[in-house]
Amino acid sequence: MIVELLLLALLLLILRFFVFKSKTQRMYDLFPGPRSYPIIGSLLEFNYPKVEVTETLKQLSYKYGPVYSIKMGMEPVVCIRSPHDFEAVLGSTTIIDKAPLYWPLYPWLNRGLLTSGGSKWRKHRKILTPAFHFRVLDKFVPVFEKNARILLEKLGGMVGKEFDIMPTIALCSLDIISETAMGLEVNAQSKESKYVKAVNELQEIIAHRNFDVIRRCFLFHFLPEGRRHNKLIKYLHSVTENVMKERKAKLQETSEESGDETNEDIGIRKKKAFLDLLLEYNKEGAGMTDAEIRDEVDTFMFEGYDTTTSTLSFCLYCLSQNQDVQDKVVEELNQIYGGSDRESTYQDFQEMKYLEKVIKETLRLYPTVQFIARYTNQDLNLKSGYTVPKNTSVMLLIESMNHDPEFYPDPYKFDPERFDTKSSHPYLFVPFSAGPRNCIGQKYAMLEIKCVLSLVLRKFRLLPSEIPITSWFNIVLKSKTGINMQFEPRTEL
Which of 187, 203, 320, 462 is 20 to 30 Å from the Cα of 122, by its Cα? Predict the structure, then answer.
């Protein structure tokens, strides 16, 4: 009898999966893509660490087409690389939830602005938007300038040597983000930073958890790597929490000394760190808990530190490899500064039109964020004709689109003039995402990048290295071989 029941159960399973498929499964079957296996899905396609993750995603896109489906474990994921399909996702006012693919970040960032969705995301976005008002950003320019000039001193000591620029840039970025986000001068460029080491190590651990069978399952936390992961997160949270306590006490002390401030928008008061603005909002009844404030500060620290580090480093590399482009940037800077060593103003950065094209071309060729993912709360009709079922992750392959010759002729050539003309599609260039959920800090990032680049180029000529870049996904884009170059004092300014 037991044998008969087992056989009947097996028959029902066969009928369920191979004959009487659900409507959703039939929709998935219409997508091309690699073979999927029980439990592990398509993870065997990812030959990490021998093959970089985004390279695998790109090769699958070239093999199966601009729309294909894979399974990350048991989770179906639809991958797209066309700007027309990007628009269907990013332009939607309803599909704003991040995909479950962001789960490796949850222990660290919880549900901050990067990872949250729905009503919580809308509430926090509304609260945080004034903190990025241009009159606040204007007040941050001296912070950018001060720390960038410390960077110049560090680079001056490396003249004539070929070295990896990224670790040096990272320390400058951390000094800037710490002071603007937390009101804390960590002086990372002057002394060893435990925080930098912790962030870098944690990112290395969590970057590939989506693409590795063992790292995806509960066994991860019993491994030495998993235990280290938990220890690092505890440390990073403690740093933010300790700073919050200090800033709360300082805010209370300042409030008692100065009395109530005016009723003008808090986002355009005198210069305040991002954390101070959040604490004041909370004091005024915005309803964010201390845990939520910590999540937002951790999120801004993560996004503002590592993304700008990557963009600055790759941009310096591109300029070192393209001397004609570097000369054009210097010519523009000479017109703005007249050869002087004066400090920069907010208006100066608005005049750096050619440098902005250089930054954009760097972000096209070496996108800091190589892919993003959303989660459908309803069936989604793509412009390519496919329908993505409800409750499905959609991965937008930004790097694959940026390197597609259909959209960018000679895609691996560094050519800032590509941005002389208006883009053929509004969603063809999305380094900061686009639509309702675009990056809230993109103006902040561009100001910081322009400030650091302009100061470095006014002081030094960048010389190329023969060591090639080896792109590597580490949550944001890095290079496994480093980003190498040389510096020499500039005499023509």
Answer: 203
Kindly report the number of other CB atoms within 10 A of residue 363's CB atom: 23
Pairing of strands 393-397, 75-80: parallel
- Sequence-distant (6+) residues with CB within 8 A of 205 are 225, 228, 229, 232
Q: List Cα–Cα distances, 49 to 20, 45, 413, in angstroms.
A: 39, 12, 27
The DSSP secondary structure of 262-319, one letter per residue, reads -SS-GGGSS---HHHHHHHHHHTT----HHHHHHHHHHHHHHHHHHHHHHHHHHHHHH
Q: Tokens standing for 52? A: 């970089």
- The angle subtended at Cα 100 by Cα 131 and Cα 206, nearest 5°, is 80
Best CA proximity match to 458, nearest among 332, 362, 357: 332
Q: Return d(Cα 286, Cα 127) in angstroms, integer.
A: 8
- CA angle in degrees (0–180, nearest 5) for 132-136-138: 115
User: Could you tell me the maximum CA-CA distance found in the chain, to the nearest angstrom?
Assistant: 93
358 burial type by CB count under 10 A (0-12 exposed, 13-18 middle, 19+ buried): buried
Give φ, ψ of 143 to 5 degrees.
Answer: -70, -45
Q: How far apart are CA 301 and CA 205, in angstroms?
A: 18
pTM above 0.85, yes or no: yes
Q: Which residues contact 130 (CB under 8 A, 6 or more apart)?
A: 136, 265, 266, 267, 268, 277
Buried b (16+ CB within 10 A) or exposed e, 210-236: bbeeebbeeebeeeeebeebeebbeeb
Please write the tens of the pLDDT for every residue from 129-169.
Answer: 887 877 888 889 999 999 999 999 999 999 999 999 999 99
pLDDT digits (tens, 9 = 90+) for 57-88: 999 999 999 999 999 888 999 999 999 999 99
H or E stretch including 107?
A: helix 106-109
pLDDT for residue 16: 52
| List of residues 6+ apart from 446 with CB closer than 8 A | 349, 356, 359
Query: Taking the CA atoms of the chain, what radius of gyration do you get in angstroms?
Result: 24
> Which DSSP symbol is given to 66?
S
